[in-house]
Structure formats: structure tokens, C-alpha cells
TrEMBL record:
Residues 105-282 form the D-isomer specific 2-hydroxyacid dehydrogenase NAD-binding domain. Pfam families: 2-Hacid_dh (PF00389), 2-Hacid_dh_C (PF02826). Residues 3-310 form the D-isomer specific 2-hydroxyacid dehydrogenase catalytic domain. This is Hydroxyacid dehydrogenase. It comes from Yanshouia hominis. Transmembrane segments: none annotated. Belongs to the D-isomer specific 2-hydroxyacid dehydrogenase family.
């Protein structure tokens, strides 16, 4: 089969496809127009975050499966795929640990003003010690989690077991039995924003969660609160976030995702001393990249071999 890979993946996945006898086609660059052209002759598509539209699927008569490299499905027209009988799979468990660890990297860095103090040391020398705002300890503080699936559960467990934190969870799709021991399920998400020292987002992007966090939520947060979004950019109203940071309604923010990706070079979040902005990098570890690539490729191999695929959604 002709398998089109839209973006760079770990070589382990390419090896799996080639060893199974499939022809692997790649793009010369990350270009939506080239993807739209090359998909027309593909039997399978392995995609990361580039858009897969109804029009593209309509113009790809041989396309049988779209294998998502990751778990966020907001870049794939799922209804169109279902209507056209195209299978869709994802890599459910492959990057959960890496994203959870990236979240904790941000929490710790924001708590101790790590980036700010390091930058000040470069510019004003050892005077940074006396001039950088004091950081905060994490131990015993309150952690608020919006969305407690595979990633949220890992983040919660680390907070409880490593830092003796009070962990509050808002997720209307789970019960308290689904939580890690020691976490508390909250019915009103306002309580998360009002009570937490650290707030982290781990829910999908959809119509229900679009701009779930905006001016109102930032307005009821504590001035010392650190806000982290390693889920999807559209969940957060970035204009409201920038305003909250500028007006010091919250202490700092860590963002691995933005509403527009790549984020504009002149965008305000890139130039704020109380923001850590990373390029959708949360799942980018050697271990995670290998797992995601391997599973995404194996799903294509399994599909054409008539074997049940991991994370099949359609």
C-alpha cells in the first residue's frame, strides 16, 4: 500500500511500514498544499497536526485509514471520515507520561521563577539573586486539574505522592472512583480557579471546551497562581490570558500549545518574562516519540492485515 506520512516521525515507524512491504511517501516540507496533492494517491495517511479535511478525503478515492500520531483529533474531520468509511486510529497511551512530565517541568520552573532568574543572571550577573522575585515551594500547595484522563491522572498522582498536594479535579465525564487516591472531584470548576495555586489543563479541544478558560476564570484566580496549558490552544482565550498576566491577576503561565501554531514571532506571549512558551513539545521525548511512531505505523499495518488496531475510533 502507498502510505503517506505528513510530518517528521521517529524512524522506528517508517521501518515498521517498510518491513511490512508498504511504500512510504513523505512531504518535502510541512506544507498543507503538498499534503492535499499527495493524499490523492494514498491508501493510508499517518498524520501529526496537519489538517485532514472532508475535501481532502473526497479527493483520495483509495484512502482507507488515517492513523493519528498522537491523541488530539481536532485536526481531522471525524464526521467526514465516518461518512466515507475511512478508519481512524490514534495512539492512546504513547505520550501520556511525557506530557505529564512536561507539565511538572513547567510547574516547577514557574514556581521557582527559573527562566526569569536564569535570564537575569545573564544580563545583570549575580545581582539577579537579590533582584529576581522570590519563588514558591510546591509542597503542600493546591493543584487544580481540568480534565483527568490518562495525562491528568499521572499529573495528579505526582502532585499527591511527591509533593503532598491537595489535588482538586474538574471533569464531568468521570466519577470519584476514576481518580487517583487522594484527589478530590469538584462539581463546580469555579472552585478550581478560586482555590488553586497551580492550575493545569488536560482536556480535549471541542465545541464544549472552546475558550473554556477566559477573562472570567482568570479574574477569579489567585494572584500567586501559575497557569499551565499542555492540552490544546483553543481551550484558552489567549487575549484574556495576556491581559491577566499584564495586569498581574495571575503570577505566570506555561503554555505548550497556542491558538495559532506556529505562534507568531511578534506575539506577546513570546516576550513576557512571566511566561514559558514551548512549541507543542510536551510529548517530544525519545521514549514517547518512539512509542507514538511505532503504534501509529503498526495501526496501519494491522488494519491492512485485518488485525484489531490500538486506539481505533472509527
Amino acid at each position: 500500500m502507498r502510505v503517506l506520512i505528513s510530518e517528521k516521525i521517529h524512524p522506528s515507524g517508517i521501518d515498521i511500514l517498510k518491513n511490512a512491504g508498504h511504500e512510504v511517501i513523505t512531504l518535502s516540507q510541512r506544507d498543507q498544499g503538498e499534503l492535499e496533492e499527495k493524499i490523492k494517491g494514498a491508501d493510508a495517511l499517518l498524520v501529526r497536526i496537519m489538517n485532514v479535511t472532508d475535501k481532502m478525503m473526497a479527493e483520495a478515492p483509495n484512502l482507507k485509514i488515517v492513523s493519528k500520531h498522537g491523541v488530539g483529533m481536532d485536526n481531522i474531520d471525524m464526521n467526514a471520515a465516518k461518512d466515507r468509511g475511512i478508519a481512524v486510529t490514534c495512539t492512546l497511551t504513547a505520550n501520556s507520561q511525557s506530557v505529564a512530565e512536561h507539565t511538572w517541568t513547567m510547574i516547577m520552573a514557574l514556581a521557582r521563577n527559573l527562566i526569569l532568574s536564569a535570564d537575569m543572571y545573564k544580563t545583570i550577573g549575580f545581582a539577579a539573586k537579590a533582584n529576581c522575585p522570590l519563588g514558591a515551594e510546591i509542597y503542600g500547595k493546591t493543584l487544580g486539574i481540568i480534565g483527568c484522563g490518562r495525562i491528568g491522572k499521572r499529573v495528579a498522582a505526582i502532585g499527591i505522592n511527591a509533593y503532598n498536594m491537595k489535588v482538586l479535579v474538574y471533569d464531568p465525564y468521570i466519577t470519584k472512583e476514576d481518580l487517583p487516591e487522594g484527589a478530590e472531584l469538584i462539581d463546580d470548576k469555579d472552585n478550581i480557579f478560586q482555590e488553586s495555586d497551580f492550575i493545569t489543563i488536560h482536556c480535549p479541544a471541542n465545541k464544549e471546551t472552546y475558550h473554556m478558560v477566559g477573562e472570567r476564570e482568570f479574574g477569579i484566580m489567585r494572584p500567586v497562581a501559575r497557569f499551565i496549558n499542555n492540552a490544546r490552544g483553543p481551550i484558552v482565550d489567549e487575549t484574556a490570558l495576556v491581559k491577566a498576566l499584564e495586569e498581574k491577576k495571575i503570577w505566570a503561565a506555561g503554555m505548550d500549545v497556542t491558538e495559532q501554531e506556529p505562534y507568531p514571532a511578534d506575539g506577546p506571549l513570546l516576550h513576557m518574562s512571566n511566561v514559558i512558551l514551548t512549541p507543542h513539545f510536551g510529548g517530544s521525548s525519545v521514549e514517547s516519540a518512539t512509542r507514538v511512531s511505532t503504534i501509529a505505523a503498526q495501526n496501519i499495518v494491522d488494519y491492512f492485515n485485518g488485525v484489531e488496531c490500538e486506539g481505533r475510533l472509527i
